[in-house]
Amino acid sequence: MPAFSYEVVATYPHDPKAFTQGLVYTDGVLYETTGQEGESWLRKVDLATGNVLQQHDMSDEVFGEGMVIWGDQIVTLTWRNNKGFIFDKATFAQKGEWTYEGEGWGLTADDTQIYMSDGTAQIRKIDPATLKETGRIDVTMNGRPKDQLNELEFIKGEIWANEFQTDRILRIDPATGEVKGIIYLGGLLKPDERRKTDVLNGIAWDKAGDRIFVTGKYWPKLFEIRVKDPAANP
């Protein structure tokens, strides 16, 4: 299986109090959701400065999870509340809720449907119009079920997934569910920085500029990376 490394293109500030769950880059800004009861927010963030441009605080009993932008709406998940929220993209006003069974971990979308991870070895397909499940993708790596899929991002026909509690991103073929490659992202933070943080989590793709951003829970930095072809690895 191809193993990809990376190089850092640029480094940006990131709120070290943000327990990052969902990350999206669009319209020149970052959108981010965070977790932990009492610390779950939906934010719009300036990439260059890390300044929060807009924020919605979720209720204290909610443990926020991933998010996806679909049209003029932001759709979010919660971990164990069996429901997510729908927000107006421009105003952050809550427009509704949606429900699902099991846990909520990550969300992403292609041009036709939403994908949802739940900690298992399956990725759910969600109809964007109804937010109802339409099917599931069985994710395998080397022929075996692969669980612990966390934050998701759809990049050039692949689903990229943070593997929970590791420094790896898995590149998944949505048609087959097969993990086609692994990106190793160890060493992004210095050891003294990493001791104060939690896991790598958060992938955002700037589709217009073809830039990839990654960060983690309580990380003080966000990184633009360039993934190196395996042939170029030492």
- Low-pLDDT segments, ≥5 res: none
CATH class: Mainly Beta
Could you tell me how far the N terminus lies from the C terminus, measured between alpha carbons in angstroms? 16 Å
Proportion of residues in β-strands: over 45%
Number of helices: 1
Number of strands: 22
CATH architecture title: 6 Propeller
Radius of gyration: 16 Å
Q: What do the pLDDT scores average to?
A: 95
Structural account:
This protein is an all-beta fold and 234 residues long. It has a single domain, classed as TolB, C-terminal domain (Neuraminidase). It has one helix and 22 strands. Strand 6 and strand 7 form a beta hairpin. The radius of gyration is 16 Å and the shape is globular. The two termini are 16 Å apart.
Helix and strand topology:
Elements: E1 3-13, E2 20-26, E3 29-34, E4 41-45, E5 52-57, E6 64-70, E7 73-78, E8 83-88, E9 94-99, E10 106-109, E11 114-117, E12 122-126, E13 133-138, E14 140-141, E15 144-145, E16 149-155, E17 158-163, E18 168-172, E19 179-184, H1 191-194, E20 200-206, E21 211-216, E22 221-228
Summarize the structure.
The chain is built from 1 helix and 22 strands.
Keywords for this structure?
234 residues, mainly beta, Neuraminidase, 8-stranded mixed beta sheet, 4-stranded antiparallel beta sheet, 1 helix, 22 strands
